[in-house]
Amino acid sequence: MRLAFDGSSVEFPPAYSTKVEKYWAKINHEGRFFNGPVLSASSIPNENEDSAVHMQLTDYAHYLYAAQDDVNEFDCRAVFSAAVVLTCDNYILLGQMSSHTSAPSQIQCPGGGIELDSDGQLDAKLCCQREVIEELGPDFGEKLERYRPLCMKSGGDLSTVGIFYALRLDMTAEQAQYSFSHHRAALCAAGERPEFDCLHAVKFERRVVAEFVQTNREQVVDYLAPIFLSGWPDVFEATASP
Predict the structure, then answer these.
(1) Model confidence over 4-46: pLDDT tens digits?
(2) Quick one: three-class SS letters along the chain?
(3) Checking phi first, is residue 26 left (phi over 0); if not, alpha (psi -120 to 50) or beta?
(4) How many Å apart are CA 126 and CA 45, to the nearest integer?
(5) CA angle (190, 136, 199) in 5-degree steps
(6) What is the rounded distance in angstroms from the CA atom of residue 77 to the CA atom of residue 71?
(7) For a tag on the chain, would you pick the N or C end, based on fewer CB atoms within 10 A?
């Protein structure tokens, strides 16, 4: 999937900007969040089009306001990349968001927003790998066995655009959780706040994944069911051993 950014920004009428600013002041009165840049999709190609996702610049305040705006006055179609992480003993790894984040207790794939590289280039795969390492730890960058494109999603509860990769590790689920716990402890010791509170290991069997999604339906992010249930054949093929 190609990404295109021409440097333009999303423009709002003054009245809407005021709503965003007031909401930001309300939810961030304790300084929990950073109002950083967010790339939002202005156009998305159809399934059979050989085209690019075109993006414009907005910010995190707009993203959070749009997420709770039932009127959907100005959707923020934030573009992110995420990894379906599979261990060598066939467990899917899912992170549970920490209480200090904007989505506490949410269960999701490791990943994060697409960002411009220092040279101004866009690379969803590199963004995804960087986020996996930041959230789970450096071992998850060193133990890669396979790293393949998987799918793209749009719409859903937050109107986001997700670019997904299948990442297979040369680590067991037990090793992965041990490594994650050490990484998390190191972040806390350094005065940083980890993105994830814990790492779930779910057996890579359709029935087990379906039960996990159903049991945790109030916490799982909206894309988990479509990817792991409706898209099971694609996930299975992408994560298969060489």
Answers:
(1) 998 999 999 999 999 999 999 999 988 889 999 999 999 887 7
(2) CEEEEEEEECCCCHHHHHHHHHHHHHHCCCCCCCCCEEEEEEECCCCCCCCEEEEEEEEHHHHHHHHHCCCCCCCCCEEEEEEEEECCCCEEEEEEECCCCCCCCCEECCEEECCCCCCCCCCHHHHHHHHHHHHHCCHHHHCEEEEEEEEEEEECCCCEEEEEEEEEECCCHHHHHHHHHHHHHHHHHCCCCCCEEEEEEEECCHHHHHHHHHHCCCCECCCHHHHHHHCHHHHHHHHCCC
(3) alpha
(4) 22
(5) 110
(6) 15
(7) C
This prediction's pTM: 0.90
pLDDT band at 50 (very low <50, low <70, confident <90, very high): low
